[in-house]
Amino acid sequence: MNHKKHLSIIFLAIFINITGFAIILPLSPALLEFYLPNQAASNNILGQLIASVKITIASLGKENAAFTTAVFFGCFLASLYAFLQFIFTPICGRISDRYGRRPVLLITITGTTLSYALWAIAGSFNFFILSRILAGIMAANLSVITAAIADVTSKENRTKGMALAGIAFGLGFMFGPAMGGLLTQINLLTLLPQLQPLGINPFSSCALVAMTLSAINLLWIFIKFEETLPPEKRLQPQKSFRFLASFRSQTASIFRTNFSYFIFLLSFSGLEFTLAFIAAERFSYSPTQIGYLFLYIGFILIFTRGYIMRKLFNKIEERLIALIGTLSGIIAFSTIAFAFIQPLFILGASFLAFAIALTVTSLSSLVSLYSTESTQGRDLGLFNSAGALARAFGPLLAALPYIYLGAQNAYISVSSLLLIPLLIIFFLPKPDKTPTTPPKPTIESIEESETPTI
């Protein structure tokens, strides 16, 4: 199979995967508004925790303690999802380096489909959390997908391949939230109230559509996707599996790139997640309107990755593009912090999308270029794992200043962290894009080639 056909198959797989994932994004305020009051009324540990958090927030003098409680638990769920992704992403990438990309993708997409099925019958908050735990574990396949792109692209075209993946991500990010916002208007309990004992809830229609998309993706991968990592380029098996070895980077360049990505997303993830809550709090956005907001952000992502980045990569190296993206993030957060009118809010959201598109794509390209053919899965897994760890702590990092200081001060204080990746990226080395065909490596030869940075 030629490389262009491989990329087209991967493109559609990413699009379907992200569309299903993104359906839930505009629903966070409404989801928690549905689950939290019912759960707080129960006498179990989770119910008592919810009631305690609400009382604590009310004691701080917050006018809408219920809404701020929803923000806190929304950030908690986002952190839990990302933490699981952090744990399993490098492991998933490492396994794919040994056994190939295809079997790992089939297993994880099957798990994702099951997670949406659980959400569809999640009549209680406990069951909904269980579905998010399974989804977070299976989201580790992102490193495998990006590694497959690296498998079928040359070094000089690696960034263009990653940009193509970014376009698929942007399309999914555009259509998924829009679908989620529209599907909230279809409440299966209104049509079939007798289904409530089965766990059917007001968001089951969203979950069922996401499950259907994931099942289609599974069938698409099973029929169309051919293995991109031939046996001769795979890592040789170890005598024993070492868990922590999955989190070791091969070179200092990869470590510094991953660390800058970690700090970037640590700032971004929490403030990005609270965007839906700010839209609901300041402008009374409904889930449908929040869906349209993400639709607009997705459009900016696609335009940036599909047009602007293709122009930039012909003239500017990846490091400079990452610097431009990080600066755009600082502008985005500063704008949203003072956005009490909708035009200014939309402008801030535009810079937010622009920053994500430039920074994430260019940094992932740098990691791939610093890596070798046989360690793409592991190294890109480390990259995505760094992002997942940031997303695990970022929402909680944003939740505390959001609760104590308010949205405006939270955005200003957390965004100052972006100065750190700005400095790190500036001193990153220029990657070698000379086409090479390295010899078949082993785990031992890779680990001995350079002292790993942990």
Task: Give me a quick take on this structure.
The protein is mainly alpha-helical. It has helices spanning 3-22, 28-40, 45-59, 65-99, 101-120, 125-138, 142-151, 158-183, 188-191, 204-224, 252-273, 275-283, 287-313, 318-337, 342-370, 376-405, 407-415, 419-426, 443-449.
Describe this structure in words.
The chain is mainly alpha-helical. 75% of the residues lie in helices and 0% in strands. α3 packs across α4, α4 runs antiparallel to α5 and α14 runs antiparallel to α17. The protein is globular, with a radius of gyration of 22 Å. It starts with a helix and ends in a 5-residue tail after the last helix. The C terminus is likely disordered.
Shape: globular
Q: Radius of gyration over alpha carbons?
A: 22 Å
Give the number of helices: 19
Helix content: over 70%
Topology pattern, helix = H, strand = E? HHHHHHHHHHHHHHHHHHH
> Mean pLDDT, rounded to whole units?
80
The biggest sheet amounts to: none
Number of strands: 0
Query: What would you call the quaternary organization?
Result: single chain
Could you name the ranges where pLDDT drops below 50 across 5 or more consecutive residues?
436-454
- Strand percent estimate: under 5%
Please state the structural category: mainly alpha
Head-to-tail CA distance between termini: 37 Å
